[in-house]
Amino acid sequence: MLQGYQSPFAATVVEKLQAAGAIITGKTNLDEFGMGSHSINSIHGPVKSAWSKPGKEWTVGGSSGGSALAVQTGQCSAALGTDTGGSIRLPAAWTGTVGFKPSYGIVSRWGVVPYANSLDTVGVIARDITRVKLIYGSYDPRDPTSIIHRSRIRWHIKRSRVRPPYPLRIGIPLEYLVSELHVSVRNAWSLTLARLKQQGHTIHHISLPSTKSALSAYYVIAPAEASSNLAKYDGVRYGHKASPSPSPSAPSSSSPDERRDKGNPLFSPTRGAHLGPEVRRRILLGSYTLSSTAIDNYFIRAQKVRRLVQDDFNHAFALSHPLLPHPHLQTPSISAEPTSSTGFEGVDVIITPTSLRPAPLLAELIAEREGDPARQFYDDLYTVPASLAGLPAVSVPVEGGEGSQGNVGMQIMGQFGDDDLVLRVGRDVEKLSEKRSHTKPSEDVIRYVPVA
After folding, report:
1. N or C: which end of the chain has fewer CB within 10 A?
2. In 3D, which of 405, 411, 410 has the Cα closest to residue 48?
3. Hey, which residues does 81 pair with through a beta bridge?
């Protein structure tokens, strides 16, 4: 649809990087309009991992797969991406790189082609945490989602911390312990927590009840917003224009204008010819959920689930949300461990795997896409909740076991605005993995919970 299109201006994040002396080397491959989790929905073909072998080609994840591959192969020090439901963290987990999604609204979205406005977040993929430098900058009036009260957030975090964050109180959500979790990922998670426990940090089981509905809510909200955002790609305002096909009742001598007047609008053949099947699928899904007959049962309910997901995180973290007007009105957390007489203290960060499984083979994904496209949505199970809540999250590679093709991604999530702590803990996890200690996985830390 946008082949050959030249943007008349640069995005705010690009301007800030260039002003700081960065060199922008080029653009990378990705899923069309960011719609996909495996970088296979692209006009340029799928993105293949650098770990691929003849006869075995692994995906790099998506949608920002090209950015992750560029970093994985050393073509650049860092790469930009947009994270809507895990599009930075999932490729990072499957390429052995670091992927950081900042708090929603901290980095300007001005100049970014939108997928879902309330979810899109500009982030960074790099080889290690030290290269992940968040560009806070100043308030961007061109972006309506850019946060004005940044000093208020910093002041709130400093004032609200009743104790130093170290040693950490680390949360482990029981809802993330599912039977579909690959054994190599589970072992890497358990080993990471055991190493953190040896460093003096404490592990606490928590409950995020709405997590079970988060993925369904995401795939209602995101396509709904996408169907609205992509309405402008009609061949008139943006994109290529396709010649309308004549209707069976139209005479062969009719002009194009006459055929359009008979009920063949221009945008229908244009969007059908120049948008990929995954994009068309999500536009149709989003248009339906916004229709008058379905909006109450789907979109409105999904927004209510989103609020429940946000509330679950607010209850779990010791730090209250800096933008809530009355944080003292938050109800106590539903904790999986006994609470003291003073109530649940909350955790500093939550650590989970980034994905249920190691990077799958491209052949398997393409077969899944043809047979059951919804099956591929499950790879976003662990990344979507943080996106719905707008929280900062980073995926850090740790040593994986058999069947993991090298590394497994561990995801660290923090309270909104607590990006610095998330990156600091990510660096600690990175150092523990670098030491390659002979710590045994801690079975008392992770208990296997099968799905009912």
Report:
1. C
2. 405
3. 123
CA neighbor of 308 nearest in space, from 372, 218, 378, 242: 218
CA–CA separation, 42 and 28 (whole Å): 11
DSSP string spanning 21-70? T---------SGGG--SSS-S-TT---B-TT-BTTB-BB--SSSHHHHHH
- pTM here? 0.86
- Are 5 and 239 a contacting pair, CB within 8 Å? yes
- C-alpha closest to that of 350 among 207, 246, 245: 207
Phi, psi of 421 (to 5 degrees): -65, -40
Q: Tokens 């990077």 map to which residue?
A: 359
pLDDT tens digits, one per residue of 130-178: 888 655 566 788 888 888 767 667 767 777 776 677 899 999 999 999 9
Q: Which residues of 300-332 are buried (b: 16+ CB within 10 A; e: fewer)?
A: ebbeebbebbbbbbbbbbbbbbbbeeeeeeeee
What is the Cα–Cα distance from 261 to 235, expressed in whole angstroms?
Answer: 17
Quote the tokens at residue 101.
Answer: 């999604």
* Alpha carbons 213 and 381: distance in angstroms, whole number: 10
Pairing of strands 202-206, 169-173: parallel
Q: The tokens 């082949």 sit on which residue?
A: 3
Give the pLDDT confidence of 187-205 residue by residue, as tens digits. 999 999 999 999 999 999 9
